[in-house]
Amino acid sequence: MDSLHPVHPVFCTIVPPHLLDKLARAENPAVSAAARRTLVADATLRQARGLLTALGAPSVAAGAEAGVPNRSIHDAENGTELPGRLVRAEGADAGQDATVNRAYGGLGATFELFHAAYGRDSIDGSGLPLVATVHYDRDYGNAFWDGQQMVFGDGDGEIFLDFTLPVDVIGHELAHGFTQYTANLTYYGQPGALNESVSDVFGSLVKQYALGQTAEQADWLIGAGLLHENVQGEALRSMKAPGTAYDDDVLGKDPQPATMDDYVNTGRDNGGVHINSGIPNHAFYLAATALGGNAWERAGQIWYDVMTGGVLEPDAKFKDFAKATVQAAADRFGQGEEHEAVVKAWSQVGVGTQ
Known about the structure:
Low-confidence stretches: 51-57
Helix content: 40-55%
Distance between the termini: 29 Å
Strand content: 5-15%
Number of helices: 10
Radius of gyration: 19 Å
Number of strands: 10
Order of helices and strands: EHHEEHEEEHHEEEEHHHHH
Largest sheet: 6 strands, mixed
Mean pLDDT: 93
């Protein structure tokens, strides 16, 4: 790994517990029952992850070709045993199950961004096999990285659709593995919010790279296409305008702040990791759009350099990360527009870099 710190895999979900808590109190029994079931499953999985951190991630297969993805998609068949039945291995043709095919494609799109843009061989830099399980549990309303593999639920069909639909959800969760093998940010408070933000950043970049979009063309939404059409919302989060992704009678109002003025102090959601991530998310959006062009080339490169440079402590706060990005911009690009854009972006969200 790139960091000097030992790896501590964590259980990271795309849908935060505070949102599932809200759904668990919904009047519609189909919605509330599915949310409660998902919350119970997540709590069990989170506890299991804490007991098994010493196991590490799967090893690279002997003879694996460098720079080539090694994907395997498994079907849980609405059970909870992982990884489940192997249904598509690397190089196999697409089958009839669209969920399997989307998972396979999303793993490939994530591998391609890291390899083509940053010369990284899989999320660990050493050809880590990318393993995913689909059709997990019944009406499971989440997707997660458990420290070893990806898992996708089918959604409840009332609020959430199939979690393989948005490629940025796949990229987001795999990026938790990237963080695990690099800066290894603690999953609580500000370092936890940075952990979530880094996943949103690279999840968005996976989508932009796959679609060939510039920073100006991108929607900067996380999870667009995941919400049922009856939900008043367009995604789980917005990097462009945190706090505006949804405003629904059942889901509630998107609680993300865009600046430190509205920072949320809470003990829930691991100290608000899915909420306050809106602040560094917005800083990245501001820097990327100020620079223009392909966001993965300059803004993304700066964030990548910070994550892999060994300069962050696991308990890094927003100001630590901001200072590191400013220094990384200067180291790679000099005191030019990249440096200026990064300094200005953090200033706009209220995070000092001096």
